[in-house]
Design brief:
single chain, mainly alpha, Rhomboid-like fold, about 5% strand, elongated, Peptidase_S54_rhomboid_dom, hydrolase, Rhomboid_protease_S54, DUF6576
Length: about 300
């Protein structure tokens, strides 16, 4: 099995977590290809345009012109280290999440948690005076979605023990708290990291676990709705049903119309067969009227 076949296999059969990771990696490679060709053709403005179009703007007004960026930004990364760190963390906490919840909920938590985190990042420029005089920074990356898993597990199983490198076991709440405190203390640092996106993702993860055992809980409802949609057929045009009218002006669908026309043709063939054998005078008055009506309809 070559690399391409392996990727196809993992994409189809590897589960939602591996699929999300593959999409992130492919998106990164795609953007890097655009960057390389933009440089080769001395057109860096094209790469900048693609990046700006797919990343989530730092201003809410920008979302009016590119709402798709709320989703596309979750699969974009600035460099290989940004991608590598996020994918390692996604694989780690994603697998913990899957020990308690379904693959479907994993995908929804990734998307909605990432969007919630990025929205909080964007809103922070309008909420806090500290950011009023700072140019809004767009946001990319899967870290907000990763933090959504942190928040979900932190609320659902805070006493869960997890194993770190060198066989060190610690409570999950301590690991999550370590990352969250790091983000909270860095909120005013100009380090180019969207710390509010991390905090927003974690908050969504916690909210998504409230009353999660109840069928009517909002994430459970969204899961049933989202996966109940036939996505393959949603953009396909539905075949239009033609409506025909027969001599009695009854509406018929395609099948009824075809049956009616076949019955009519069989009757005509039988009458014409009688005419060929015994002449026109051999058929009845009703049959003559039927042929007359048919010839007028054909005209």
């Amino acid at each position: 099995m070559n690399l391409v076949e392996r990727i196809k296999y993992e994409f189809k059969h590897g589960g939602s977590l591996k699929t999300l990771i593959i999409i992130n990696v492919l998106a990164f490679l795609f953007l890097k290809l655009i960057y390389i060709f933009s440089e080769l053709f001395n057109a860096p403005v094209f790469y900048k345009w693609v990046g700006n179009t797919l990343s989530m703007p730092g201003e809410l007004s920008g979302l009016l012109f590119q709402p798709w960026s709320m989703v596309t930004s979750l699969f974009m990364h600035a460099d290989i280290f940004h991608l590598l760190f996020n994918m390692i963390m996604l694989y780690y906490v994603g697998n913990i999440f899957l020990t308690f919840f379904s693959q479907k909920k994993l995908v929804l938590t990734y998307i909605l948690g990432g969007i919630a985190g990025n929205l909080l990042h964007t809103l922070s420029y309008d909420i806090f005076p500290f950011y009023m005089h700072i140019s809004p920074m767009g946001v990319i990356g899967a870290s907000g979605a990763v933090y959504a898993f942190f928040g979900a597990i932190l609320y659902y199983r805070p006493t869960l023990n997890v194993q770190l490198i060198f066989g060190i076991n610690i409570p999950f709440w301590l690991l999550a708290l370590f990352f969250l405190i790091g983000d909270f203390t860095a909120l005013t640092k100009p380090d180019g990291v969207a710390h509010f996106a991390h905090i927003g993702g974690a908050l969504f993860g916690v909210i998504s676990m409230l009353k999660v055992e109840e069928r009517s809980q909002f994430m459970n409802r969204l899961e049933r709705w989202f996966y109940g949609i036939q996505w393959r057929n949603i953009f396909k045009s539905k075949p239009k049903m033609k409506v025909y009218k027969n001599k009695d002006y009854r509406k018929m669908n395609d099948d009824q119309y075809r049956d009616s026309k076949k019955e009519q043709q069989d009757k005509i063939n039988a009458i014409l067969d009688k005419v060929s054998k015994g002449g026109y005078d051999s058929i009845s008055k009703a049959e003559k009227e039927f042929l007359f009506k048919f010839s007028n309809e054909k005209k």
